[in-house]
Amino acid sequence: MSSQVFYRKWRPKSFNNLAGQDHVVTVLRNAIKQHRISHAYLFCGPRGTGKTTSARVLAKTLNCLNPVNGEADNQCDICLSYDSGKTLDLIEMDAASNRGIDEIRSLREKVHFLPSQGAYKVYIVDEAHMLTEAAENAFLKTLEEPPKHVIFILCTTEVHKISPTIISRCQRFDFLRLTTKDIVSKLEFICEKEDIQTGHKALEFIARAAHGSLRDAENLLEQISLQFNQNVSVENVQENLGLVHTKIAKDLVSYLLTENTPAALTMVGMALHEGADIQSLHHQTVELLRTLLMIKSGATDTLDIDNDNLNSLSTIAGKTSLSLIARCLKHIGGIKPQSDQGSSLSLELAIVEISMELGAPLAHYTSEKESPIVRKDFPATPIQKPNPISQIQDKKSPDETDQTEPTELQDAGSHTLGSTISTEAWNNIIQYLRKQRGKRFYLGPLLKDCHQPFLDEGSMVLPFSHRSNMERTEAELEEYTCKTAVNEAMEKYLGRVYEIKLTLRDSSNGSSSSSLLGNPMIRAAKTLGGKIIKEENKTANE
Hints:
The protein has 22 helices and 13 strands.
């Protein structure tokens, strides 16, 4: 095997071999065939997507003695000199280390020299966004009107940092991140040529880890093949990428979605004890939650995931709510664990904050059906831990109701007409909604003004002591997010969802006036400035 690294050894030598940039290749090839060459090009896009390689191929093709359909023949003397790196007509300049005005002045003096072999002298300016403002200004006139034998190709990963006056003088091409399919195809070609034992699934792991960069994927493939003696299996890839703790990340997500805080915290402790990188665990957890969010939202077409994982995660997503996934992703995704410190505190704190926001007690799972975590090598007190997948249950089923909920609420049908909601259940609902904010107010503090809420004809009646709090609550419940949160609280602590009816308790005679939020006529009248003066109940005979 050659001593060259993979990404240099297997760098494309023609447009046909460029991966994943068909929109760029088509335009450049047609321009060459029609002899419509620009004096300046701007190649921009993420790293490892083929910008510099495309610039070199373009330079070679422009100077090829026998081009065929816009492609270099790779056989003439000029093509061979380009491939061997011996040509004098291709000048590559790294703007990161040659970014000053002196370097640009030197370039302006040299552009007038004629090419030694081909028809064009091509200047490739890599990392063009690194040029100083003074250098850009000095470069403008030359870039706009260079000698006829000179072509400039500017490459950059941060096009927003380049002056608009520079961009306006170039033909711009935006390079895209490569798809997993394109990267795997190139890796399979390299493995065949380098006699590397591997499988399609292992290469998919590498491709996804590269995040659209073919160069990164090729480097990973070479590193793993050297580490495991030309054997690139799924297990070897996972070990190299630190994905051996993916099972822990899946369990952690499952416990988060079942509101099993003790087990979730235990999984983080396990990962730390087994030497897992906290940043890697955090990244995998966020990716799993994001995937579940996309699946629950019906956007599976945007996911880069194999069918087995898609089916598995779809089952989990079907047994939980979109709002719970979003809350977990908001808290977990909003932190940045410090890997060098080896601390899992930020991740653990995010898990506890999720539990507090949802109003779930820390000792939530303590039923006899649950088996503790038993690990001889894990020095921690056993914590009750459910099966991560089977614990994600449909809460609408009475048989699957959490064992730690108040016993008088286990059967929603046990409430009779006019029965009072238990103080414990009502306090749990208030705690659940304490951080749920509407347009102006938090629901929890507003609902504390209610005393002895009760059920009446399929509705949950909330008697308020103050009209201002009742009107504020009514206004906030018109918000979709607030209404959804209240429904979740009722389903969690009452076993079902009731229609909400707000009443005002009269302190003098105990009578009350009511406002039925479900009546569209009442809400329409209130939006037009109307107010409820009096409400009467009439029988059908009246």
